[in-house]
TrEMBL record:
GO terms for biological process: cellular response to heat. One of its GO terms (molecular function) is ATP binding. Keywords: ATP-binding, Chaperone, Membrane, Nucleotide-binding, Repeat, Transmembrane, Transmembrane helix. SUPFAM superfamilies: P-loop containing nucleoside triphosphate hydrolases. It comes from Candidatus Gottesmanbacteria bacterium RIFCSPHIGHO2_02_FULL_40_13. It holds the Pfam family AAA_lid_9. GO terms for cellular component: cytoplasm. Residues 744-826 form the Clp ATPase C-terminal domain. The chain crosses the membrane at residues 20-40, 60-79, 85-118. This is Clp R domain-containing protein.
Length: 826
């Protein structure tokens, strides 16, 4: 009977306390279920606020009609409320007596409950002690016992490891582990050791298990975090209402809406959020904001809220969570009977042809909601309805009529629209209390994904999501999704990746590789494990580019190295992949080098965002790049970069751009983002930026004739462009590399001629013909096509005028047969 003290503690403390708690809640339940307190307060109130008023002047018939209607409405409310109150009081006494009997019986039958005690489910702390005893001083046995328990299995599944496979693998190990070292390190704490601590500590000491963790790119910190996550998930299960007095007090009992009016017309233009099934009802990290919302909404007047934040930061989820808490009773009693209605302003506006009529119907339905007495009105993008302009309508005067009532407006807007359209109206601005939403911290974000999002997505997609996948989601969302803030972009990525894993990979477990594969396919990004074909391409980028570009080894080496560093995750993820300034005369291969890189690594030279900077002058040029708020036009650079964040950006002949545009590129080149006309950041952290310039072309030619070349030429050229105020030092220093392109030699021109002729043959292959490329043709083309001022660029004109024209004439004369190599004379 050594267990007797523990048994008596269990019987008379733990279980008896729960029985007393259950008795109390069971007794009080009818009082709140039948809304006894509320009905007593409103016992003589009109039924559903149904009253009528007298018309102006005194008319006996009108007076009698009003009095009789209002009396009947109050009598009807009295009868219904009185009936419900009677039921509530009856069940209060009935359940109080019924609930007391088992509690009393439990106190009178000690020792008869010993079989229940012995069969009870042991707490995890007791299981740790049992495992330590059964391990026979062997870490291997302790690890196997641990892996047999459901909680440990849950932890390893969440780590992305199969506990059954682990158990089998460890069973074949001869190493019993250093149990004395384990005991020496943790014996002082063994009595207080929880199960999660046991898992962590066994892995920390038992080398075979520790090596498995390490081999799967996991750390001890990951194990500790995952164990904590599993524990928190187990606590997330909804406690039945009968055990939670707070929920009982806040529940929507019978007839709670009898004291409030109908909203027949308002319902036509709105959705009741308190009746919807909320997608993500358990919100993490916004308790302060939710508490502030409740405090504001509890006010008797001026209880208006303006939620300010960028789309994706969780504005709508915050309101939906508030609605869910009202619905489930997890809120302050003062607002537990309220409804949050989301007003569809677009439906309202489209229902009437004129602004005056829209204002009329808006005023009528908001008046109806105000009279109902239990309505909070949510208006999405409220800034669009308090100012004039394209896509906007000014209903400020309508809203201001009710801002001091108890209706309670909940407006949603972003920071830019708030400052532009709401803050400028001081009276309107003062009518709302502000709640600013910012992206959560990384710790809160991880917890939100784990506790709020993962359980919902697992039920929705019938998938299992591992901890490494949670980390990978955040990592990839931060790096590759730049248009939406956290937590929105992480939620969207996890949801889409789960669908991808299930439908494309036929997997029921979301792994990090699935997230990489989804991102790679969606954004045309090379992600994940480097396959043999890509490895070969990375190692031979220089060789592939030299198939199109002659000479210019320095430039090709620089861009190829940047690509390799980025793909292997070595370079900084805070800046673009690489930023380069190509200086040199026309026709030496600057633009062709950029095209060759786009072809070699991005698969197609069309995967290059090219901007001829001479076309962007003064303020109009700046507006064309980043957009114009005057006409609401998006920018060419910002739009294309937003659509294709993984690309090569070519800023051709940048010296022709207006000087104020240089300031725009300073941030883009140095920090990897650009700000559009609305103030939104568009990131270029996955892009390569190449700027070309003909500045100093004549200086290069003169320097070469003086024998200045190599690094000395680069140094003197940079000094020259700074002294001439062509480029500032701060602009030049932003680039990873400034590469000087020199004029081509005669031999290099012949090589360019050969490449151009081969390119022509590739086009002619569609006609099943070709030209015969001979040394004489190459030499003559290089001679005719070379121009000291325009370099190899004039060679294209020579090919068009002297070769393609000959081919066209021969084809028209019928002198060309399919498969024939045409001889060309220059």
């Amino acid at each position: 009977m050594s267990f007797l003290p523990d048994y008596l503690d269990w019987h008379y403390q733990k279980v008896l306390f729960k029985l007393l708690l259950l008795w109390r809640n069971l007794t009080l339940f009818p009082m709140y279920y039948f809304s006894v307190g509320l009905h007593l307060k409103t016992l003589l109130s009109p039924w559903k606020k149904q009253t009528i008023r007298m018309k102006p002047g005194f008319h006996l018939e009108d007076f009698m009609g009003v009095v009789s209607f209002n009396i009947i409405s109050r009598i009807m409310g009295l009868i219904l409320r009185g009936t419900v109150i009677s039921y509530g009081i009856f069940f209060f006494f009935f359940l109080g007596i019924i609930g007391f009997l088992p509690t009393l019986l439990w106190c009178l039958i000690p020792f008869l409950t010993i079989p229940i005690y012995l069969k009870r489910k042991l707490p995890l702390d007791s299981i740790v002690s049992e495992m330590l005893k059964k391990s026979q001083n062997s870490l291997k046995n302790l690890a196997l016992l641990m892996l047999s328990h459901r909680v440990a299995q849950d932890i390893f599944w969440r780590l992305g490891l199969n506990p059954l496979v682990l158990k089998t693998s460890l069973g074949t190990k001869a190493d019993p582990g250093n149990y004395p070292a384990f005991w020496e390190k943790y014996s002082a704490n063994s009595k207080n050791m929880g199960f999660n601590q046991l898992v962590f500590k066994v892995i920390d000491i038992y080398e075979p298990l520790k090596n498995i963790i390490s081999d799967n790119n996991l750390k001890l910190g990951d194990v500790e975090h995952t164990a904590s996550w599993v524990e928190k998930l187990s606590l997330l299960k909804n406690i039945p209402m009968i055990w939670d007095l707070k929920k009982i007090k806040s529940m929507a009992g019978i007839g709670v809406d009898w004291a409030y009016g109908f909203t027949v017309e308002f319902d036509k233009y709105s959705r009741d959020l308190t009746k919807l099934n909320i997608t993500y009802p358990f919100l993490v990290g916004r308790e302060e904001e939710l508490e502030k919302m409740q405090r504001i909404l509890m006010k008797t007047d001026s209880n208006n809220i303006l939620i300010i934040g960028d789309p994706g930061v969780g504005r709508h989820i915050l309101v939906e969570t508030m609605a869910y808490r009202i619905k489930s009773g997890d809120c302050r009693p003062e607002i537990s009977h309220k409804r949050i209605l989301s007003l569809s302003m677009h439906s309202l506006i489209s229902s009437k042809p004129s602004v005056l009529e829209v204002k009329g119907i808006a005023s009528e339905i908001i008046e109806e909601a105000s009279n109902a007495g239990n309505i909070f009105v949510m208006i999405d993008d409220i800034d669009k309805f308090v100012a004039t302009g394209e896509g906007r309508i000014d209903l400020t005067d309508v809203l201001m009529k009710f801002t001091d009532s108890d209706i309670g407006f909940i407006g949603i807007t972003d920071s830019i629209a708030y400052h532009k359209f709401i803050e400028t109206n001081s009276e309107l601005d003062r009518s709302f209390e502000k709640i600013y939403l910012h992206p959560p911290s990384m710790d809160i974000l991880i917890e939100e994904l784990e506790l709020s999002i993962v359980p919902v997505l697992e039920r929705k997609h019938k998938m299992f999501i591992t901890y490494p996948s949670v980390k990978k989601t955040i990592e990839d969302a931060e790096k590759y999704i730049t248009t939406t803030p956290f937590p929105g972009k992480a939620i969207e990525l996890m949801d889409q990746s789960a669908v991808y894993a299930k439908t494309r990979c036929n997997s029921r477990v979301l792994q990090p590789v699935h997230i990489d594969q989804f991102i790679a396919e969606k954004l045309s990004l090379p992600l994940g494990e480097i396959k043999a074909s890509e490895k070969d391409r990375l190692l031979n980028i220089e060789k592939i580019m030299h198939q199109r570009v002659v000479n210019q080894e320095k430039a090709i080496d620089a861009v190829a190295s940047a690509i390799r560093r980025s793909r292997l995750g070595i370079s900084s993820d805070k800046k673009p992949v690489g930023t380069f300034l190509f200086l040199g005369p026309t026709g030496v291969g600057k633009t062709e080098t950029a095209k060759a890189l786009a072809h070699a690594y991005f698969g197609d030279e069309n995967n290059m965002l090219r901007f001829d900077m001479g076309a962007y002058q003064k303020e109009e040029g700046l507006e064309r790049l980043i957009g114009s708020i005057k006409i609401g036009s998006p920018g060419e650079l910002t739009s294309r970069l937003r659509d294709r964040p993984f690309s090569l950006i070519l800023l051709d002949e940048i010296e022709k751009a207006d000087k104020q545009i240089y300031n725009l590129f300073l941030t883009l080149i140095d920090e990897g983002y650009i700000t559009d006309y609305l103030g939104h950041k568009i990131f270029a952290k996955n892009a390569i930026i190449i700027a070309t310039s003909n500045a100093g072309a004549e200086f290069i030619r003169q320097s070469l004739t003086k024998g200045i070349a190599g690094d000395e030429l680069k140094k003197t050229l940079l000094d020259f462009v700074q002294k001439e105020n062509i480029y500032s030092p701060e602009f030049l220093n932003r680039f990873d590399e400034v590469v000087v392109f020199t004029p081509l030699t005669e031999g290099q021109m012949r090589e360019v001629a050969r490449l151009m002729l081969e390119k022509l043959n590739k086009r002619l292959s569609a006609k099943e013909i070709s030209i015969e490329i001979t040394p004489d043709l190459i030499r003559n083309l290089a001679s005719f096509g070379y121009d000291p001022q325009f370099g190899a660029r004039s060679m294209n004109r020579t090919i068009t005028e002297k070769i393609e024209n000959q081919i066209a004439i021969k084809m028209l004369e019928g002198n060309v047969k399919k498969g024939e190599a045409i001889k060309i004379n220059l």
